[in-house]
């Protein structure tokens, strides 16, 4: 009988051996590594990704190496064999704040909510250094209609109930907006209880070879496809109104906090 881990992290990979090595090495520094199951799904890389996976994965992890139909297909394969109570996926070129991952295992993995939402940073990798930028901070849980405007729940910083994630599934026809498609359908179908944790869990790495840098046209087409399929006219109007109120309140809170810090200084 398979053991139930605190979390299964699915890592799709294709020819990103150096990034994969960096990600796995850092996760192995976790003090709760035995509670973290990694599932690397490699689409048949021609670099040394297979050797990296074999060197850094632990006996309780899983490695799938076979041709796939893209990133969404790879994630779906990993989700199917995940043994963890919780599930998330992390691109092999992205990174974790390991202390926060440990905090999840120790303090939040028994939570009764269906989604754990963390804050996110962006890393700009110029080949010689990494520059950190705050990319998103949650104010309060966003509901599905507001996601017409933005994803809000990025894959780098959102953890899902595994069983519910399996029921929603991934659409392998998406090449870029698979995370947006999954998040919208999950929140629309499940209406989950969301626990916000005010710490940075995941960090998206931007570099010259990332999909974010190369596939903006595909991003626009696929994002529109999700919006056209999932949001009726009234959903869109309601979602835009929610987003305007959300971001206005967020701007007010940020200004107030700056004023408090200035006053205390």
TrEMBL record:
Alphabetical list of Pfam families matching this protein: Glycos_transf_2
Domain of life: Bacteria
Chain ranges of the Glycosyltransferase 2-like domain: 8-115
Gene Ontology terms, MF aspect: hexosyltransferase activity
Name of the protein in its database record: Glycosyltransferase 2-like domain-containing protein
Native species: Mesorhizobium delmotii
